[in-house]
Amino acid sequence: MKRKEEKLKLYQKGKLKLISIEDIMLKDIYSNLENELVNIIKADKNFHMKKHCPSCGMELDDRFL
Question: pTM for the whole thing?
Answer without folding.
Answer: 0.38
